Structure formats: structure tokens, C-alpha cells
Amino acid sequence: MPELRKDPIIKRWVIIATERARRPHDFINAKENVESAFCPFDYGNEHTTPPEIMAFRPADTAKDSPGWWVRVVQNKFPALDSNIEPERFGHGMYDVIKGFGTHEVIIETPDHNASMATLSYGQVREVVWAYKERLQTLEKDSRIKYILIFKNHGREAGASLVHSHSQLIATPIVPKRVAEEIAGAAEYYRFRERCVYCDMVNQETLEGTRVVEENSDFVAFEPFAARFPFETWIVPKVHSHNFGEISATQIESFSIILKNTLLRIYKALDNPPYNFMLHTGIRGIDESNHYHWHLEIVPRLTRVAGFEWGSGFYINPMPPEHAAMYLREVSTEEE
Amino acid sequence: MPELRKDPIIKRWVIIATERARRPHDFINAKENVESAFCPFDYGNEHTTPPEIMAFRPADTAKDSPGWWVRVVQNKFPALDSNIEPERFGHGMYDVIKGFGTHEVIIETPDHNASMATLSYGQVREVVWAYKERLQTLEKDSRIKYILIFKNHGREAGASLVHSHSQLIATPIVPKRVAEEIAGAAEYYRFRERCVYCDMVNQETLEGTRVVEENSDFVAFEPFAARFPFETWIVPKVHSHNFGEISATQIESFSIILKNTLLRIYKALDNPPYNFMLHTGIRGIDESNHYHWHLEIVPRLTRVAGFEWGSGFYINPMPPEHAAMYLREVSTEEE
Hints:
2 copies of one chain form a homodimer.
Chain A: E1 3-6, E2 13-16, H1 24-28, E3 52-56, E4 70-74, E5 88-91, E6 94-98, E7 102-107, H2 121-138, E8 146-153, E9 165-171, H3 176-192, H4 196-207, E10 211-214, E11 218-221, E12 232-236, H5 248-268, E13 274-279, E14 294-299, H6 306-311, E15 314-316, H7 320-329
Antiparallel strand pairs in A: 1-2, 1-6, 3-4, 4-7, 5-6, 7-9, 8-9, 8-13, 10-11, 11-12, 12-14, 13-14
């Protein structure tokens, strides 16, 4: 049974997969694994994944059969288990929670060779609708304290399958990084009585030097204190703490800016590995005044080394103002 | 001029290398770089590094010439500059400090092919003496608020040269990760009136299941909430917040447990890439009751992906109790 364990010093929770027996040898050659020709996310292989949780598919097609355009299934090797109750217990001085949670995969397209940068705007929009639907369904479970939607693109970014997909992990605790954002935003709000993300949107659109793209509802920019080269955030212009409350119009404009930003990165950096993470408040966390949902995109171009791990302090060799300039230069027209 | 910039939400400082002009193309093939046959850390190439800051060498040898057994120089591409004053200024809503600091390289041996796991105990002891000497010298500068000593071993862990070396970065702010440890330890101290690290040493030595090696002064163990497979901490048994206060006897026993732990990892995992980070309080930070210096070793066996970046929450597929068992099984006898 997986366990959540808490670091007693900095209060970071980790998931320990206590039951997956792995020997040291399993780690040694893990990196040489080559993907097989078989893909469980292709049409016709639906029976090789766990059963469909939801799918967008024609009404006349059956569950777990071809025809879908977006499909959500449980992760075959879930990090957490929804059949466990999130009981808390102590182990001497340490704190533990039984490994309750969910771990889902959002298959973004039936096209094995597509990626989010090259999908149509319409298809990206459907994926965003799936995010919204899963978030709104899961946040009704009061045992779930946080829901993270994220994407690993490319082997260097942690993807084990090339077929374009994102993931969702729901946890019985608010993860450290998100709790820090919420606490930091709350502190800023107490000091200024304004949302820090709204202030960033204002300064970024005013200053313009770090902006990559902007439309009526969203702005994509390189954050002033970017950790990584070409790190890019997409932030809604109108204050909203919960992604689940996104409107149909906003989904349209979010899909356009998301696809365009990924396409700019794809073209400028030759389809680099990247991660993106959707940071959102969820129903039941009272941070609606000061928290503000957003998406963080991080191309994986540099290695994180001892200094970064040891200090939480990053060295970024690419000023965000230069990165924004390079990304703005890229055309998002179809070629 | 490099700049330190602060994230206004979670207060993480980053170093932006504003002057190193890099284009997107520079990132694309960066990973294919192959090390040249020339090594600036070999005997005879001393003139190709910045001048020696200190070295352990026979009295009859000249600075920047062969004969040394440990040598410290400035990093050729320093992330921070000791000739800049750490002035603070604002940029709209953002905070900036001019890029003051130092970035040094500790060359651990003249032997091009050695690594800390395979060096003699005596040679490791000399490296530890060099750490102590640099720490004690630099902490006298009141502009320096923190000093991090760390090591990147192997390309996957961020090392750009194979010749065994560690690094030191001194910064005008306390980095986020360290500030969190200090704050967490202070909170624990207020609650229990005991040091959290002392409590961990007690529970770990009592329980034994996560212990890798123990001697009179130190214990090496897998932390209960380990983020990574085979993550190992070395903690002094007697409370001490500042590594700079380490005694000659402790240096002896620290060198033995450090070399042995690295050798166990080297043998169990076939010389994996790893990072280690020395976390210590420094003179002038008043945390002597509750903070406790220690060394964290992190083999780089799994990829950090979107979930970890997005949440600060780690999935560890190797229970620390199993990892400790595997590392205890390894013989540290010379073969």
C-alpha cells in the first residue's frame, strides 16, 4: 500500500511506493529503456489500458472502443489508490497518511504522432474541456484536498510514452509548492489588498518586455524571476482562483494561447522536452480573493544540479526578457 | 551583470545571468556536448583555471603549479561576482539584488580518474579540511548571508567536467530551501524544546531500519520521507549548527562515513550520477539551538517530472527501509 510521509523539518509530503519491489539493479539501466512499437493509447488498444473513466466519443461507439477523440483512464501504475481511506497515523516522530488518491491519464488525441503544439485549436479545446470536467467531478470528494493536472512531454521531461497525454493526480493533502503559493499570495493580499497575480498581469502587460502573446482573456509571459530558460506562464486576465470555473469563451481563448505558446516553444527550440503544470485552487479551499489559477510551462533545457537541489535557488542563463523576444519572433501561422 | 530576482509569490530568489548572451539554438544541442581530452584540473594545466584561492601543497611548490593535493579556484564561469556590491532595488512590483557573491571550485584530487567514492580516506579528509577552511574564511564577510558547498558527480547530475570536484556558492541572501529548514526546525523547537535533527538521530539509531552506517560521531541514514531512491543523509550525533565548528576528530570520522557511503552507492548502483549538498548554519545566523548541519546525498536515478515540479511533492518508488538494507549489504573493504 502506498504511503504519504511527511518530512518533519520542511513539511514536504512524499509518496512512498512501499509495495513496488524494486532492486538497485532496476535503476541502473532504466534509462536505456526504448519504447516498444506497441502503444496502449492507439485506436484498437483500448482494452490494454484500465477502463475508461470518461471519453469524448460519438454516441454510437462503445466504451473502451475506438472512435473517441479525448479519453481519460486510470494510470496503469497509479501512485495513489482511490480504494484506500486517507487515515493518518504516527510512526515515532513521523507523520504518515495511507496512500489515498487518484492518478489518471488524459489521452489527448488518437493520433500517435501528434503533440499539443501541433494539434488543431479545436482538439486542444476538447482537452481543456476534459480537464475542466475531471476537476469538477473530483473536487466533490471531500477527502480530496488538491488536484494537479500536468503534462510531461518527451523522455527528458519524464514521459514514458510518446503518445500525447497529460496526467491528473488528486491528493489528500495540499502539496507544499501549492501551499506556498497560496500562503505567499495571502501575505501579499494582506499587505496590499490586491491579488499578486492580478498585479503581475498588470505590470507585465504594461511593460511588455516579457510578454509572449496576449489575447482578450489571457496573457502568456516569461516570469520576472524565471527559474528556467523559456519558462512561460499563462495567466487569466480576470481574477479567478479556480480553473473549474472557466467559461466556454475562456476555454476558447485559453486553448488558442496554450497551443500557440507550445508551438512557439516547439519551433524556437526544436520540439524540446517540457512539463506544464496547472496550478488552481479547488472548491473548499477558501482562497478566492487572493489566489489566481495559472499554467506554468517549463522546457527542460538545463540540468538541475546540486546547487538548485541544495538551495531551492536557481541559476537561469537566459534572461526572461530575451526569451520572450525569441518566442514572440516565432510565427504561429500554419506552414 | 548577474542579478538576483525574487519571485513575489513564493519568495524564491533566482540568479539571472543577464549578460551571457545565449540564443535558443545554444540550448538545442547542449546535451550532445562531449568533453574534450583536455582537462583544466590536471597537473600542468593550472594556468588554464582562474588563479588559486588556496591549495594544500608542499611548501616548496609555487602557487598555480603542480604538486598540490587539493586546490580551490574561482569558477571560470561564475554565477555571481564578488566585485559587485549587493545593492537592492525595485523594478515595479519586483525585488532585485545586484549579483554579488562568490562561486568557487574545490578540485578534490590531482588524479583525473578518481572519484570521492574511490579516493583514500586521507584524501577525503583533506577535501573536508578545505571545505572547513573556505567556509570559515568566507563567513567573515558580513555581506555573505549563506554559503552552500555541493557536488555534482556525473553528467546527469550536472557535472560539466569529469575530474572530481565540488563547488561553493556564497550568496547575499539565505536561499529558500535553507530558510525553510531553519524555520521548520525553529517551529519544532518551539513546540518540543528539542532539535528536530537530534530527535531524528535518536529515532533512526534506535529503530535501525533506515541506517546505512554509523560511527562514534555520525550516522548515515535514508530519511523517513526520502524524496528519491537511495537519498542518504549524514548527520552529526552531537548537536552543532555550523559545519565550520567541526573538530579534527570529527573531520576524521566524517571523512570515513562520507567515503564509505559514497562507496556503497557507487557499488550498489554502478557509479550513478549524484549530487550532495552540505546544509549548515553560518556565523551570524542565530539558529544555534535548533538548526543542525548535515549532508544530503541524492543519486540521480529517476527523472523529476511535471508532478514534482508542479507540487513540490515527490513519488519515490524505493522505500527508504529497502534502500538502507541494500546499502548496508555492500562491503566497504578494499578489493
